[in-house]
Amino acid sequence: MILPADYHMHTPLCHHAVGEPVDYAARAVELGLDEIGFSDHSPMREDGFDDWRMFTSDLDKYVEKVRLAQKRFPQITIRLALEVDYIPGHEEWIRDLAGRHPWDFLIGSVHYISDSWDFDNPKKLSRWKERDPFETWSIYFERLTMAAESDLFDIIGHADLAKKFCFYPKTDCTPLFMAFLKAARRTDTAIELNTSGLRKDCREIYPSRQILALAHNEGVAITFGSDAHAPGEVGGDFGKALDLARSVGYRHARRFCQRQASVVDL
Q1: CATH code for 12-265?
Q2: Domain ranges of the chain
Q3: For a tag on the chain, would you pick the N or C end, based on fewer CB atoms within 10 A?
Q4: pLDDT above 90 covers what percent of the chain?
C-alpha cells in the first residue's frame, strides 16, 4: 500500500511532544512514506497565552530543526509548515506569521471557543459539563467556518475536534457542518483526515464519515495527518484513513509546496 503524505507532525518545541524532526523523518522512511510535513503549534503574540505551543523566540529554531531533517533525509520530501490557531481578531498575527518563513502550507485549527477555553484540553474537561454540548459545537463550527472563510490557511485541521471527549449534541449538527464545508469549498481550502482521533476518547478519525461524505459531495479537497507527537505515531492508522476516504468517493488528495497545491492519486 502506498501511503499518503503525513502533513501533521509536532516537535518538542510545543512542550507536549517528544522526539526531534530527524527522528520523525527516520520513522517516515521506515514506513515508506515519500513525503511528510512538520506543522507544529505556532506561537501566539503573547508567549504566556497557554502552555502547549512554541514561543515566538523558538520559531527560527523550529525552522532550523526541520531544515536539518531535510538535509539528513534527502530521500524523502519534507515540508515546512505550521498549525495555527484561528481566533477571531488574531488575523493580523496570522498574516505576520505567514510572512516570516517560506512555509509550504498552513493548517488552520480551532482549539479555543473563547480566549480562555481550549476545549480539547484535558485539564479543562470539567467545563464541558457546565454547558450544553450543542452550544459548544455551534461555537466551534462557527469559528471553523470563519477560519475557512478567512482564506488564511491551506488546510483546516481535525474538523470535528469537538467530539474528542464524546460530548455529543442531541440536536442535528448537519447545518453546522454544511456551512463550514461550503466556506471551505468557496476558498478552496482542504480539510485533513486526522487519525489522532483514533487515539482519543472518541476513537474515530477526524472528521467523521458523515462529514467526510458531505465534504466529498461539496468538492472539498483532502490531506492526511497523524497529528504525531512522537515518532512512533507517524503515519499512524493511515490504512484506515485511506479506506475511509475511498469509501466516500475520494480518489485524489492534495499536496503543497510553497503554498501551491498539487493533486496526487490515492
Answers
A1: 3.20.20.140
A2: 12-265
A3: N
A4: 98
